[in-house]
Amino acid sequence: MKAVVYQGPFSVSVEEVPDPELKHPNDVIVKITSSCICGSDLHMYEGRTAAEPGIIFGHENMGVVAEVGSAVKSLSVGDRVVMPFNVGCGFCKNCQRGYTGFCVTVNPGFAGGAYGYVAMGPWRGGQAEYLQVPHADFNCLPLPAGDEFESDFALLADIFPTGYHGTELADVSPGESVAVWGAGPVGLMATYSCIIRGAAEVYSIDHVQERLDKASEIGATPINFDDGDPVQQIRDMRGGDGVDKTVDAVGYQAAAQGSSAAGGEQDEIPNVVLNEMIDLINPTGIMGIPGLYVPSDPGGVDEGAKRGALSINFGKLFEKGLKLGTGQCNVKQYNAYLRDLIISGKATPSFVVSHEVPLDDAVDAYDKFDKRIDGYTKVILNP
Fold first, then answer.
1. What 3 state SS string does 82-94 have?
2. Where are the alpha helices (DSSP H) in 170-269?
3. What is the CB neighbour count within 10 angstroms for residue 336?
4. Are residues 165 and 311 in the same domain?
5. 297-342 pLDDT, tens digit each
6. What is the pLDDT of residue 365?
7. Which end of the chain is less congested by CB atoms within 10 angstroms, N or C?
8. Residue 339 and residue 141: Cα distance in Å, rounded?
């Protein structure tokens, strides 16, 4: 089959690789119909992780069941499904409590597994024609047959639940004011989720104009941090007041004011978003942090950043009595509910999708998505 294979920093290729096989009676093989390129893939693509050449990328996957293991009970050939990016077993202590992003079974020695991602276990990615799905009864979310809502459902694998997770971590409630740092795919989904949850005012902070335009279209107030300190901009709009809740959808590759918008070219201040959140949020507020932070960053701006050690204004955080929540999304906590919002017409997350391209065009798509050019906001690959 064809698959997207990592070659090294800023280099992927579409290659012929062996087809996946059923390795356990609980497995299924899914024929992929949609697989998204994620901002998290860019961390590997840019050489900002320990990823070695040969990884098949792709953790946002959906398709149709092509083969079924003998122990699978709830799925049949032809079923349309989407898989959380988390690979979970369903029976370990964390999975049983709903923390499927921290499964202790599927990636021995580490809490958490994922398709096609460095250090997240042996699971090949789905930017390919077929994908092996383990513990399939647990990991496959059934979808209505056909091709309706294809680009909406594809976002249930990661970014829609992850954006929603940011609002859950921050406990966004009706009537509140929220500032969301980042208007990339996850940031836009977090902003959208704030609106779904009834927030009265949502501020979207970025410096890529196309992203800010998207945020404005869904009812958020765009804040371009190249125009000045976003904390002061928002306080000026609110008569000096801060906000009730904040969400960090940026993570450790936060850009400096005025730097390039291109991922591989920007100047970085890895702690800037965390400290701006602490500055802006009102006392007793809650900070949701779904943005990715890593314990090892080969491209870090200093020795501390290279080992994931960042300086934050903890004294101010303590003084304000703030709470915070972090960690990757436990997709299964949300994906069935978000699927049903899509089916009912109450959520249309595909507004964020800018391009759907054939798998063969993945090399060009990665390059343009990383450089933030030609309107590449969110890309879906169609094998």
1. EECCECCCCCCHH
2. 185-196, 209-217, 230-237
3. 12
4. yes
5. 888 889 989 998 999 999 999 999 999 999 999 999 999 999 999 9
6. 97
7. N
8. 9
Residue count (the chain): 383
Annotate 169-194 with three-state secondary structure.
Answer: HCCCCCCCEEEEECCCHHHHHHHHHH
Q: Which segments within the chain are labelled E, that is strand? A: 2-8, 11-16, 28-37, 60-68, 80-83, 130-133, 141-142, 177-181, 201-206, 221-224, 243-248, 281-289, 323-326, 355-358, 379-382
Residues of the domain holding 54 = 2-158+330-382
What are the structure tokens assigned to 298, written together?
């080969």
115 contacts 59 by C-beta, under 8 angstroms: yes
Residues β-bridged to residue 35:
61, 381
What was the pLDDT predicted at 27?
98
- Give the pLDDT score at 294: 87
Six-digit token string for 47: 């050489």
Please list, residue by residue across 295-332, b when 16 or more beta carbons sit within 10 angstroms of its beta carbon and e when fewer do. Answer: eebebbbeeebeeeebeebeeebeebebebbeebbbbb
Cα–Cα distance, 306 to 71 (Å, whole number): 44
Predicted pLDDT at 297: 85
Rounded Cα distance between 290 and 288, Å, is 6
Q: Which residues share a beta bridge with 221?
A: 203
Among 279, 303, 326, give the residue marking a domain's end.
326
pLDDT, averaged in runs of 10, over the chain (383 residues):
97 98 98 96 92 97 98 98 98 97 96 96 98 98 97 98 98 98 97 98 95 96 98 98 98 91 84 98 98 88 91 97 96 98 98 97 96 91 97
Is the pTM higher than 0.90? yes
Residues 197 and 231 occupy one common structural domain = yes
CATH of residue 266: 3.40.50.720
